[in-house]
Task: inverse folding
């Protein structure tokens, strides 16, 4: 005991070589198993069942891709996701830029406001929204209304990404340099700041896409046939096909996460949680 | 945090002047117009967040004709609705407990000094993926795993063990295990920075006083971490409490959670009983607000030693 605690450097070196205690190994194994087992089961299920006397193989995947409803619902979700990304960036990039440049006192307020959508559950928001949106018939009956609502849910994630991006650059110096060269505030934003915010914008936008593509509560309660709603409906009839669809949706989400990782290789891990439950 | 921000504010407000005294008039001169910059976002949030939330609160106290009433609120205190709130709270408590315990154990394993680097980075990456895997696809994944014909259920049945008690389609315990899929990775991701904040010197000081690993954890690390632990678990609780998609996809319209009840009342374009839905939603908002107050207090307590 005494020999171990003589001085920090040798103890640390010895610590490195020591093996991880079994107690810790156990919990890493449990965590990894918890992550993998449901996915393996899902994949197994998607190849399960018997079709025409043969084991199904890729049959359910074929059924999915042959279904015109799959394509239409998927396309609808992609459209809504694109609209959400455009809308939320148009709203947040100029606002966040302006707050950093001219109204830094508002930043704590924005930190609080950007948490609000995270606190109000989607199911509560939609109960309040339905009677209000009914007053605006032209919007209420169109799927674009989903994009308008998803902007609210995307706000915390996009704002945080942009806020971190703006914090990382020396905005004041850039803005003054741009002004000295005769640039207006607008051209400072578009030609100087925006190129520097590229990874923040792309990172926040990927999270926004993940939210918009996966949102079920609001689109189902407003009766729009988005991809998650279609997936839910399939699950009520064919379990194996629903599993195949879930695998596809999982692969898509991971592809998004991987691109997010590649874009923002700075290692901001906590900001990457954006699913709607 | 606050002290770091204060100099930034001064610097930002005094670009053209050299003295702090000159900054104030300059700020006032650029005046009210710059507030227009935040007008679009404010208007947007008012339209899609503040007004609907306010409308909900007001409507919870109204009859369908618009007269003031406390009837909607007293309705949700009937046994059937109280049991829904009870079921939701029980589920959230279980999910927060499972997620909290497994998240803490896994997080403390990967930050252990003798854990290889690659374990830490790969578990963190997995956690990022798992925390994002939620909603309808997650429901189907667990139906394939622990449902009546799920892979694990069938395997255990062959061994003579019934897993009916943790069936995610029918039991609260099973549903809590499903929520745990995205809750414990979230706990892990939020706790790793707090665990990194434990100073090496504290462990060494404890060791010099003769404390072993367990004693160090019980008397030093755990008390310091407790506020962040509880704070994160409050977040997990809130996440489970507000979740709807996963639960609905698992139990269909038979579920008894508050969120599912509101969903059934609101389904389609016809709101079956809007007044009841408003009152239930208001009840959820009150509980979430209380949770946020607790979270805020715990965060304040947590920042005393960490960060």
Result:
């Amino acid at each position: 005991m005494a020999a171990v605690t003589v001085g920090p450097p040798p103890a640390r070196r010895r610590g490195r070589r020591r093996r991880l205690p079994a107690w810790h190994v156990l919990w890493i194994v449990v965590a990894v198993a918890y992550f993998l087992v449901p996915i393996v089961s899902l994949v197994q299920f998607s190849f399960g069942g018997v079709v025409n006397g043969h084991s199904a193989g890729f049959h359910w995947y074929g059924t999915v891709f042959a279904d015109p409803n799959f394509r239409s619902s998927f396309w609808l979700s992609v459209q809504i996701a694109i609209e959400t990304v455009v809308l939320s960036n148009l709203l947040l990039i100029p606002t966040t830029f302006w707050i950093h440049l001219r109204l830094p006192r508002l930043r704590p307020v924005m930190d609080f406001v950007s948490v609000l959508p995270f606190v109000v559950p989607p199911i509560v928001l939609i109960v309040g929204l339905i009677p209000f949106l009914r007053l605006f018939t032209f919007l209420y009956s169109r799927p674009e209304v989903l994009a308008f609502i998803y902007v609210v849910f995307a706000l915390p994630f996009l704002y945080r990404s942009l806020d971190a991006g703006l914090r990382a650059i020396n905005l004041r110096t850039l803005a003054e340099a741009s002004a000295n060269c005769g640039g207006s505030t607008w051209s400072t934003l578009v030609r100087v700041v925006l190129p520097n915010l590229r990874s923040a914008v792309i990172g926040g936008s990927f999270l926004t896409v993940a939210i918009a593509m996966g949102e079920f509560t609001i689109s189902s309660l407003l009766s729009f046939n988005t991809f998650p709603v279609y997936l839910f409906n399939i699950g009520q009839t064919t379990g194996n096909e629903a599993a195949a669809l879930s695998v596809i949706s999982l692969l898509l989400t991971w592809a998004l996460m991987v691109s997010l990782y590649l874009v923002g290789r700075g290692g901001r891990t906590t900001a990457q949680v954006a699913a709607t439950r | 945090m606050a002290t770091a921000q204060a100099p930034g504010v001064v610097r930002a407000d005094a670009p053209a002047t050299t003295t702090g005294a000159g900054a104030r008039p300059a700020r006032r001169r650029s005046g009210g117009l710059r507030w227009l910059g935040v007008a679009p976002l404010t208007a947007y949030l008012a339209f899609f967040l503040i007004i609907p939330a306010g409308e909900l609160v007001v409507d919870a106290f109204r009859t369908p004709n618009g007269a003031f009433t406390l009837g909607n609120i007293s309705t949700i205190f009937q046994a059937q609705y109280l049991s829904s709130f009870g079921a939701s709270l029980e589920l959230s408590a279980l999910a927060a407990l499972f997620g909290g315990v497994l998240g803490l154990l896994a997080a403390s394993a990967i930050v252990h000094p003798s854990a290889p680097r690659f374990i830490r980075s790969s578990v963190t990456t997995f956690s990022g993926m798992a925390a994002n895997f939620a909603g309808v696809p997650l429901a189907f994944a667990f139906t394939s795993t622990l449902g009546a014909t799920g892979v694990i259920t069938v395997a255990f049945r062959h061994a003579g063990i019934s897993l009916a008690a943790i069936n995610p389609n029918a039991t609260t315990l099973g549903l809590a295990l499903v929520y745990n899929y995205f809750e414990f990775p979230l706990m892990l991701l939020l706790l790793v920075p707090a665990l990194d904040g434990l100073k090496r010197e504290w462990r060494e000081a404890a060791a010099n006083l003769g404390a072993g690993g367990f004693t160090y954890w019980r008397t030093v690390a755990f008390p310091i971490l407790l506020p962040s632990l509880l704070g994160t678990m409050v977040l997990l609780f809130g996440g489970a409490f507000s979740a709807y998609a996963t639960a609905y996809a698992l139990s269909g319209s038979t579920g008894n959670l508050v969120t599912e009840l509101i969903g059934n009342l609101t389904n389609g374009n016809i709101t079956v009983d809007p007044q009841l839905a408003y009152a239930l939603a208001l009840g959820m908002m009150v509980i979430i607000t209380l949770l946020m107050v607790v979270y805020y207090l715990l965060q304040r307590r947590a920042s005393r030693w960490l960060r």
